């Protein structure tokens, strides 16, 4: 997991680093939002592990929002989310995304990637990338944001083998990816793209659906692999072979009796 921090948008205070573990957020004597040692004095806490970041709110706390939506108990966060704690805004930021490939370079594409709206007027909508998508105010844009301050053509999204290429094509302030301002970048699945402070999109890679035949084949392969690790069962002998010792013993007894009969019969 990349380095995560809580950042004040205007950088009026130093970033609050979030390493794996549990971090309690409270107020210092000056009223600033800081990491605190005493969990009892915390207004919220962040739990960071390999699954992601979880925000837990103190019971009874009001006025806490994530991306403008109230959180009463718990919420899962992603880099780029804006957290409002009692009037103070913090951004959850991660490392800067990778640079976009240069113009004119042929890009191996994976068109299965999708762009899903998670905030603003495009919330809940998904856009595939079989062809490049242009975001802007103009009527011919693929993802249209018809607002006066928005550029006619803000950015262009293109499929890439490792994600989605974001290219700025005329915006004033650029875009924000995972809390970091950018103009051109290579976005990976799970990255959050923020435009104009309110229009949020997430890059997603759909999971592959297996057919029934493929599922059965995988199950049989798993069972075969498990059977290879088991000790071989004792071989099952035919009934005639299992009776062989008793037949030999009976033959020996009969031979002995016959010998005695012949010996004593002659006398």
UniProtKB/TrEMBL annotation:
Keyword Transmembrane: yes
SMART domains hit by this protein: FHA
Residues covered by the FHA domain: 133-182
Classification via Pfam families: Yop-YscD_cpl
Keywords from the named record: Membrane, Transmembrane, Transmembrane helix
Transmembrane segments: 246-266
Protein's name according to its UniProt entry: FHA domain-containing protein
Species whose genome carries this gene: Lysobacter capsici AZ78
Classification lineage: Bacteria, Pseudomonadati, Pseudomonadota, Gammaproteobacteria, Lysobacterales
């Amino acid at each position: 997991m990349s380095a995560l921090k809580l950042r004040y948008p205007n950088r009026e205070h130093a970033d609050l680093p979030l390493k794996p573990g549990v971090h309690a957020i409270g107020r210092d004597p000056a009223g600033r939002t800081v990491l605190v040692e005493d969990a009892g004095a915390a207004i919220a806490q962040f739990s960071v592990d390999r699954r992601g970041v979880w925000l837990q709110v103190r019971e009874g706390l009001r006025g806490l929002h994530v991306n403008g939506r109230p959180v009463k108990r718990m919420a899962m966060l992603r880099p780029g989310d804006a957290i409002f704690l009692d009037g103070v805004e913090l951004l959850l930021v991660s490392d800067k995304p990778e640079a976009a490939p240069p113009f004119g370079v042929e890009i191996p594409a994976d068109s299965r990637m999708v762009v899903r709206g998670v905030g603003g007027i495009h919330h809940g909508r998904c856009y595939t990338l079989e062809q490049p998508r242009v975001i802007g105010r103009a009527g011919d844009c693929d993802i249209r944001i018809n607002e006066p301050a928005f550029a006619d053509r803000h950015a262009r999204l293109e499929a890439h083998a490792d994600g989605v290429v974001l290219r700025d094509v005329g915006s004033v302030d650029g875009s924000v990816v995972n809390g970091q301002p950018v103009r051109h970048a290579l976005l990976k699945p799970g990255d959050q793209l923020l435009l104009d402070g309110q229009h949020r999109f997430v890059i997603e890679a759909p999971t592959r659906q297996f057919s029934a035949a493929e599922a059965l084949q995988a199950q049989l392969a798993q069972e075969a692999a498990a059977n290879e690790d088991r000790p071989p069962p004792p071989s099952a002998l035919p009934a005639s072979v299992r009776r062989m010792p008793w037949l030999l013993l009976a033959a020996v007894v009969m031979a002995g009796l016959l010998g005695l009969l012949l010996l004593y019969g002659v006398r």
